[in-house]
Write a structure and sequence with these properties.
Blueprint lengths: L1 E8 L16 H13 L5 E3 L8 E10 L6 H11 L4 E9 L11 E10 L12 E3 L5 H9 L3 E4 L14 E12 L2 E8 L6 H14 L6 H8 L14 E7 L17
Parallel strand pairs: 3-10, 5-6
Antiparallel strand pairs: 1-3, 1-4, 2-3, 5-9, 5-10, 7-8, 8-9
Helix pairs in contact: 1-2, 3-4
Length: 259
Amino acid sequence: MRIALGVEYDGTKFAGWQVQPEQRTVQGCLELALAVVANHSVKTVAAGRTDSGVHALQQVVHFETTVNRDERNWVLGLNTNLPNDINVIWAKPVADDFSARFSALNRSYRYLILNRVSRSAIHADKMWWLFSPLNVERMQAAADMLVGHHDFSSFRAKLCQAHSPIKTVEKIQVSRRGDCIAIDVKAQSFLHHMVRNLVGVLVPIGEGRKPIEWAQQVLESRDRSHGGITSPPQGLYFINVEYPKEYSLPTVSAFPVLW
């Protein structure tokens, strides 16, 4: 039997999603909990990997099991055996051809920036604090230049293992509510650090230190050294994965309080 899970986590105290020797990872904690509930060892496949410090509202995972449990028992049993910074939101049996990774139509990330003079005691591990005023209209104009089917070599981490730097970005939306700025990015797949590097280009444009056209120049250079900084991980959230409707997977609300 193949089961899909919706998983949320606070990435602050994890060395990322993927299992690593002698490191606390989300996958490692989840597979330990699954082994307890299923009473056998379990290997998981995720929709996407997240780096150390990156959060998720709905990471989608699938695994194989010989145990018959109803959906509620999977959720309650796993959450009983998971640490407080990981939570399973839903569980659902899926067809054998479903893959959390390869069946995904697109993935969505949100990057949050706290843009005010004073830092936050509450959101220190949840947003990137920037005290310089950011112009959202300038950032959106620059972001529009990056939407579409492009070679994103300039936004790719040095150790990225993707076979091709060519990706199709469906949407980049920059919006502000009070002191909070959200940058939403949707694509079928992403390069390593791609969203954080996109943010690293949009921010100096929003500050007025770079012209709007700089985003296009960075893209066309296909050279990572021509880009901006890699923005810090704490502002990044993996918020959703979309699948074909025939799988009928649940959805979750992204930031019902903040946004």
